[in-house]
Design a protein that fits this description.
By secondary structure, this protein is α+β, with helices and mostly antiparallel strands. It is built from 5 helices and 16 strands.
Length: 310
């Protein structure tokens, strides 16, 4: 697995109200708030990280809750759906739960031989709970209402919508080491064999569909996982060699990152496993305190006056 991508690392999206977002993901979906920090470029805005008990790469969903931001619109040049892996025979539990919590959802359906349940979060972000064909032994985070037999395990997949398949497919296969597993009508499923879970990217080709608008309820970027800084920079060389513009290495405190926009228009990130989320909190304390990037620590009192109460 040297010099290879290891599936999904995290997915970052945009939300509106911070408390509504926090309540939905911790209480209704039963995720753990792994890290509570601020946007590196906008310290008056939270950056929430939700995941499993220890913040395992491939389970991390992050949000920038930007208050009264306008609602986005799904379309091309976007990541449009996020898939979570759930245990077999758990969708009926989730359907009942979503209905009780007044969450917008669709009936249980099936694709590529897997049952799934679609729902929208309070900002309109689209999700699928998927009973994966691949055994998923990742340890879940349990809450009083969502126990292990039903709890999400982490990402199953992410879906990209594009007007033209091939340029995005070339990045996934030639640069990232994915392969086309199967297709159905205009949906193409790409997988990497370097990991068992969080290893699927679906690409939906819709020529002529309008370009989406990234705002509230939209995916901001999709981050793929690598082992460490050394592999990160080797992957960077491959991307530069392919003629794509990519950033220099960025320190995000809990991982190191590179960013580039794939030809279909979606912002991709490559992120390392190191140093991880336990660098400034113990596993037991994860998400309990506001953690600020070092450059903002001197402004803590000012920043606290701007951040919404949770």
């Amino acid at each position: 697995m040297e010099n290879q991508l290891l599936g999904l690392h995290h997915i970052t999206a945009i939300a509106g109200d911070a408390k509504r977002n926090y309540d939905f993901y911790t209480q209704i979906l039963g995720l753990r708030l792994v890290k509570k920090t601020v946007n590196f470029d906008d310290p008056h805005t939270y950056h929430f990280y939700y995941g499993d008990r220890v913040g395992t790469p491939g389970t991390i969903l992050t949000f920038f809750p930007w208050g009264n931001i306008q609602t986005g619109r799904r379309g091309t040049r976007q990541a449009t759906e996020i898939g979570y892996s759930v245990p077999s025979n758990s969708l009926e539990f989730w359907l009942k739960r979503l209905e009780e919590k007044n969450v917008t959802y669709n009936k249980i359906s099936e694709k590529f031989g897997e049952r799934y349940l679609t729902f929208l979060d309070p900002d309109g972000l689209k999700f699928e709970l998927v009973e994966s064909k691949t055994p998923d032994d990742r340890l879940p985070w349990e809450t009083a209402e969502v126990k292990a037999e039903h709890a999400t395990r982490g990402f199953h997949s992410v879906t990209i919508t594009t007007s033209k398949l091939q340029p995005t497919a070339d990045v996934l296969t030639n640069l990232f080491g994915y392969r086309l597993l199967e297709s159905n009508v205009n949906r193409y499923r790409f997988v990497t064999d370097t990991v068992k879970n969080a290893n699927i990217v679906d690409v939906v080709e819709v020529p002529g569909e309008a370009v989406g608008h990234v705002a509230g309820g939209s995916v901001h970027h999709v981050a793929f996982r690598v082992k460490d800084d050394k592999v990160l920079m080797e992957i960077r060389d491959k991307i530069v060699g392919a003629g794509l513009h990519i950033t220099e290495k960025v320190d995000r405190n809990y991982f190191y990152s590179l960013y580039f926009r794939e030809p279909g228009g979606v912002l991709f990130e490559i992120a390392t496993d190191n140093p991880g989320f336990a660098i400034d909190e113990t596993i037991e304390e994860l998400g309990s305190d506001l953690k600020l990037p070092s450059q903002y620590e001197v402004r803590r009192n000012e920043i606290l006056t701007y951040l919404p109460q949770l």
